[in-house]
Structures are given as structure tokens and as C-alpha cells.
Amino acid sequence: MADVKVPIKFEIYKGDALVREEVLTQDVIKVGKLASSHLRIDDETVSRMHAVIEITGADEIHIIDLGSTRGTLVNGERISKTRLQSGDEVMFGDSRVVVTFLEAQAALTPPPQAPAPRVQQKTALGMAPPPGGWVPAPAPHAPPSAGFAPPSSSLPSPRLGSTSSSTDPSRAASTTSLRGRSSSSSDWSWGLQPCERSTR
Q1: Bridge partner list, 148
Q2: How far is 185 from 182, CA to CA, in rounded Å?
Q3: 191 or 42: which carries more pLDDT confidence?
Q4: pLDDT tens digits, residue range 95-118?
Q5: Closest of 38, 28, 13 to residue 92, by C-alpha
Q6: Closest to 68 measured CA to CA, from 84, 91, 85
Q7: Secondary structure (DSSP) of 63-128
Q8: CA dihedral defined by 34, 86, 69, 31, rounded to 10 degrees?
Q9: Per residue in 65-84, is it b (16+ CB within 10 Å) or e — as a string?
């Protein structure tokens, strides 16, 4: 949005001597001998708040007297409010001020600036981290301790009906003794048969 500023040059004279020149661009210019005045005139005949100049456009510049003691004169006429033109002479007390309008300037409001691009920091390996940051690697599983024993279900079950003399020595000895008894009884029964036949 363009805001039109009208620079106004003020030439301040004391009698015929030029005291100073000043250029102001405010929309409201306060004139007086107060230090806070925009156009400060160091003169005892000037009131503390003597007058106000309002700028509402390039061709809309007005001066308003604020009830000063000596009054405000524009081109020799005392006024309460009037429109100013470039080259007018204004009397504030005993001080004469020549007003000159300079070329109006359009103060453009700068557009909002785009945010600066985000610069990613590089690591020692020269790789840029992802936007969310590096994800830590999972911790490795700890090896089993020395006293770890597998569950009983992992042990192989023995086969049914299989016997081994090396695994059960007592069972093997009993089996051997039974075989010996059966062999000896068989031999004994066959040895008695001839005797029984001979008696009959």
C-alpha cells in the first residue's frame, strides 16, 4: 500500500536574516517553541504550542492556529485555519517562515520477505541428517550367560522299546541271568526224559 508523503521545506527568518532551513514529512507538524515541537522556533513572541500544519494529500495542506497570543498570519492575513500553498509566507510572532512544497514521494510498504532457506548441518561423514534427526540403532542382544540351560522340551526323548546295556547295567545283568536259567532248565528237562521212558 502506497502512503503519499509531501516533503515541506521551511525557511525560518529573523527579520531579513535566514536562521535555518528544515524539511519535514510528517502528516501533522506541530509548530511552537517547545522542544517537542516538530518545527521549533526559538522566539519569545512564539507560543509554546503556536500552530499545527496538517497534510492529508498533495494538494490538501492546511495550517491551524492554536489560539496563540500573537496569532498566525499567512501572507499578511491573520487566520484561524487556511489552506497553504507553496511559496506562502507565514508569520509566527516576529519570526517569518517561507513554505515550499517539494515533490511528493510515495512511501511503499515493503512486501513481507520469505523466510531464509533452512541450512542443514553436515556430520563428520559429510552426510546431512534427515529432517527428523538420526534414529539410534537398536541395541544388540546380550549373549546368554555361562549358567544358561535350555528348557527340558529341547532335550531329545528316548525311543520306546530300545534298550542298551551301557545305559542300564543292572537291567542287562538280569537279562543275562534269565537266559542262563532258561538254557539250564531246558537241558535238565531233556536229560530226565530217557529215565522216565525206561521205567515204563
Answers
A1: none
A2: 5
A3: 42
A4: 999 999 998 766 555 666 766 666
A5: 13
A6: 91
A7: EEE---SS-EEETTEEESEEE--TT-EEEETTEEEEEEEPPPEEEEPPPPPPPPPPPPPP-TTSPP
A8: -10
A9: beebebbbbbeeeebeebeb
